[in-house]
Design goal:
Elements: H1 16-26, E1 35-37, H2 39-45, E2 48-52, H3 63-71, H4 76-81, E3 83-86, H5 90-102, E4 106-110, H6 116-124, E5 128-131, H7 136-150, E6 153-154, H8 161-177, E7 183-187, H9 192-202, E8 209-215, H10 220-226, H11 248-257, E9 260-264, H12 266-280, H13 290-297, H14 299-302, E10 306-310, H15 318-331, E11 335-343, H16 348-358, E12 362-369, E13 379-387, H17 391-403, E14 408-410
Parallel strand pairs: 2-10, 3-4, 3-6, 4-5, 7-8, 7-10, 8-9
Antiparallel strand pairs: 1-2, 11-13, 11-14, 12-13
């Protein structure tokens, strides 16, 4: 009878030694961001939650790590010719910043639809920005053309062993700071960060659960690993992980090393951005909030675990952040728009306002509608935006208005 042997383990393109060497290589030139416990979020989720504040890097994202690890391994000839990338996000910032610091020419190809602020920021780091095509795919194709024509070195945002090793240094630091972590919850876009972190987890000598997080609108790695065919499209808050096609290298590593992938809704992403600002006083982008969104949306998956969550980036448009915060206030009942039917006669609005005063609810805006309504000519609808302490406080106001004979409905958010 033949002796039973274990099947050979696949040789992956990134090893723990690669990550350790990368950490030694880059550690003097990046921020050693803190890994801190959040007692409030731990109470809310039922897990012991540690946050890794990668939004405190100079360019406000972990992407610097992989970019710098790649740049430091270039030959003198490659450095002289320069590097190129296609990106409208954090990879562009991180590569441009460290290339400029090292005296390496950098060219970043961005879609023509890229917001001006991102173009200006990238140029501010010393890079040459080329605007080409309306989509990322078009910009990527043009970058590969310029690479071939001019001899640049293309630096991929995720599908490169040097980049993956650099991103894995996040996990090295987390386990050095908090050895008790037994679960990593990591956003997945192209898969570079989770591939590097999973490499570290598997080499730790103990069981560490590695869970990836994707937005419901862009389940690309989920599809790849599970064989599903869900659409990847839509306007997600987590634009930093809105990737339609994950990398070939990263897909193989995720398949081999990652325990699970969960999906999160846009509402959970919005709530998480708001919670991190209110509770931790830290600004994160949608992708940076994905880990917390997973804990909120799938609490049973993480309850009782000691969880390390990477706040992978903090580059969010200020107007978008304001909208997210206001929408969260509305969903919690602290802000509301009430639609009240009145009769068009003197004192009607005054009598309604008196009820708001009695319930101690602040009126922010009043909108009268007399013309564009299906009501009779003597009827009108008024929308009143108001501020309450909480949902219960708002409910008391609505009951008081209805008790006074006013037909009152709340204008709900999607």
């Amino acid at each position: 009878m033949a002796t039973q042997i274990n099947p050979p383990q696949p040789v992956l393109p990134v090893s723990i030694d690669d990550v350790r060497v990368a950490h030694d290589r880059i550690r003097a030139s990046i921020v050693r961001t803190p890994t801190l416990i959040s007692r409030t979020l731990s109470e809310m989720t039922g897990a012991t939650v540690y946050l890794k504040f990668e939004n405190l890097q100079f360019t406000a994202a972990y992407k610097e790590r992989g970019a710098l690890n790649t740049l430091l391994q270039l030959s003198d000839e490659a450095r002289a010719k320069g590097v190129i990338a296609a990106s409208a996000g954090n990879h562009a910032q991180g590569l441009a910043y460290h290339a400029n610091r090292l005296g390496i020419p950098a060219t970043i190809v961005m879609p023509t639809t890229t917001p001006t602020v991102k173009v200006v920021q990238t140029e501010g780091h010393g890079a040459t920005v080329v605007l080409e095509g309306e989509t990322f795919d078009a910009a990527y194709a043009h970058a590969r053309i310029l690479e071939a024509e001019r001899g640049y070195t293309f630096v991929h945002p995720f599908d490169d062993p040097r980049v993956i090793a650099g991103q894995g240094t996040v996990a090295i630091e987390m386990l050095e700071d908090v050895p008790a972590i037994d679960t990593f919850v990591t956003p997945i876009g192209g898969g570079g960060l989770i591939s590097g972190m999973a490499t570290v987890a598997r080499a730790s000598g103990r069981a560490i659960d590695v869970v990836g997080v994707e937005a419901e609108l862009y389940p690309s790695m989920y599809n790849r690993i599970r064989g599903t065919d869900m659409p990847c499209a839509g306007d997600t808050l987590a634009e930093g992980i809105a990737v339609k096609e994950p990398g070939a290298i990263t897909s193989a590593m995720v398949r081999e090393l990652v325990d699970d992938i969960v999906l999160v809704s846009e509402r959970s992403l919005e709530k998480s951005v708001s919670l991190l600002l209110q509770i931790e006083k830290t600004v994160v982008e949608g992708a940076g909030a994905a880990g917390l969104a997973a804990l909120i949306e799938h609490p049973e998956r993480f309850r009782g675990k000691t969880v390390g969550v990477v706040l992978c980036g903090g580059n969010i448009d200020t107007r978008l952040l304001a909208n997210v915060l206001l929408r969260d206030l509305a969903r919690s009942g602290r802000l509301a728009r009430l639609r009240i039917r009145l009769q068009d006669q003197p004192g009607a609005l005054f009598n309604v306002a008196r009820i708001f005063d009695q319930e101690r609810i602040n009126i922010i805006e009043v909108y009268h509608q007399r013309v564009f309504t299906t009501l009779p000519a003597k009827g009108l609808v008024t929308d009143i935006e108001c501020e309450a302490r909480d949902r219960a406080h708002l409910d008391r106001l609505v009951l008081a208005l209805q008790a006074a004979g006013y037909e009152t409905t709340q204008v709900e958010l999607a």
